[in-house]
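Sample A.
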Amino acid sequence: MRHILLYLALSASLAACDGDNSVRITTTSSSDDQSAGVLKVIDALQCPDSLGVLTRKGLAAAGGANCVYGGPKGADVVLHLVKLDDRSVDDVLRDFEARASADLPHTVARLAPGAEDAPPPAIEAGDTTTVQAPGVDIKTRGEDASVRLLGLKIETQGDNASVRIGGINIQSKDGQNVRTETSTVSVDANDNSTRVRTRAPGAATRMTYVLADDQPGDAGWRQVGFEARGPSGGPIVIAVVRSKDRRNDGIFDDAKELVTLNVGR
């Protein structure tokens, strides 16, 4: 079971499996799903002076269309209010994903289909092991494992596994070389690179995108991404996050809280 989880978090060329050694993915309700409400239509951003580890830089842009925050170790968060006008939500999200990915082009290349495979970490029964990669925290002790990615939580005890991500519940049996992907969640990993996408179903927009790498880009960023949320028809509030620290869950969490403050959960 631990090998499944380590492949999910870290291995390259993750391939879908069928039969007994399989991953079963079904939609499910979680506490986050149940607490999700109707997202608000707004015409200007709320940009508090500070929120969590984030501190606003200067004033919000004229018209309340964006504001900039600084975080620990040079991290930054830019909050955008995006009107759809004649564009589709998908076009807007693809544009923001392309912008974020441009900060880590080598990571995108490493995660592309056909990239060189990386072997899984070898873990012997009874060992205590810790694996840390960009946005990934894995701890194992004997038959038990704990896996944390941004937006992903996995807990195992022996042969039992529970996975929660983006309203998806994943139950798996022992196996290797597995990939989880549906219309609402995608997790890719290759050696020291990680990419996570989640998108909730429905007319409203709720999407998270994270790209992380041990090897920084030219500007020093190791983790980039965004949280996007908004009602059907827009506008969409998007918090774009960039960090030079590979372990910055607090920054992403606070960026999400900025989005929640503006449009709701």
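Sample B.
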Amino acid sequence: MAMSFSSLQFPTISIPCRKYKFLHIPPFHRQSSKSKSSFHLCHRPFSSHSSTIFRCQAQKQQEYQVERLFSNLNQATLKREPGSLSSAIFLVAGTTVGAGILAIPAVTEESGFLASAVACIVCWIFMVVTGLLIAEVNVNTMCELGSGGVSLVSMARRTLGTVGVQIACWTYIFIHYALLVAYVARSSEILTNFLGIPLWESAALFSLVFGGICYFGSQRFIGGVNGVLVLGIIISFTALVAVASGGLQLDALLKANFEAVPMSIPIIALSFVYQNVVPVLCTNLEGNISKVRAAIVLGTAIPLGLFLVWNGVILGSIPNSEMADKMIDPLQQLKSTNGVVGPIVEVFSLLAIATSYIGFILGLADFLADLLKLPANQSSPLPYILTLFPPLVLALLDPEIFFKALDFAGTYGVLVLFGIFPAAMAWSDRYSSSSSTVKLPQLVPGGRITLSLVMGGAGYIILSELRQNFGLS
């Protein structure tokens, strides 16, 4: 089929040819990802009238204006399919609002609402910063390699070398499989209670339905599904808050025990995990850093609001005498006091798990495709089989693995991969002499001080947990 490039509008990068240099020269027209992307760069004199532009730094710290890095093309129509910002926000919000929200009241009841609210806000800022650092390195890597669909493997290889790749690979795979196992185990339990079918059928049904959506669905379809699920979460969440707030005691919200806050940090940090979909986000939004920044900030702000309201309602509605019991399960307490709460909690839990499940499937499948070096322009089922099958088997072997998987993944995996690693990659990307001379502006200000604080904070929590677990404190 003949194709006229004159009928297509390609993005431009406004850097004079004599001052522009790629370490890897991008091809004129290259297929770049499963989402049917085309990567193209062309040079032109700088124009102050360019629309939707952002700065790019080249040799000698000179700044230039660039538009999006590439265009997503539909293979059938050869028309551009620009990434939807609303779909990106829903993807981030849906991935963030997972099963972790159900555990937050239980791990923060000792610290109290005020202290836990401060911890939630600090963790939110921390996770937004690390997500933006991943996006910064991801877009710079796409710029250098001349390709979209860049996963954490390529980012780690480019910035941290072979050792960094090995640590990133195994930590990434461990976190995703641990959380996918937890999600399948909990969702199959809920579906079994609702449908009255065997546990293995519930687990298989959940995995096949949402795995099929991720494999066969387009970007817009998946974004629409996430939007519907997030809407369902908001509705069921509102119903839960309305029912639970009947016994709200305002005095109980004033409790603050900051000494107990560090114990809750791993679960709170786990509840804000979304960074696994940032590479997918950058590709879907065509490397447009302003859209990526907005999607990350707004997409995580929604869960932050949900977490704060949910935690306040739960901690403020449990009597102080019962709060003294450290083994109390706030959700079980709600179910025992009001029979209406049980079904609402189950619906809310299933929807929250489903949104996170979609995000983790997309993130791990994209990661495995890059790790296996599969052709970027082919939609291979192998990454999805490797993503869906092992968690399904493990969840069926140990149906009680839900909380164990959440705790271990949050304590060690998340703070390493989505705490220390983003700052380390950004440090190498920004300050290494071997990195590319063409870079986008930094998404996180503060330079080395900010990066040091990020790595130091994550390392401190990890060491504290290790000391506590081994009885060294």
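B remarks: Confidence is low (pLDDT under 50) at residues 1-65. The two ends are 70 Å apart (CA to CA).
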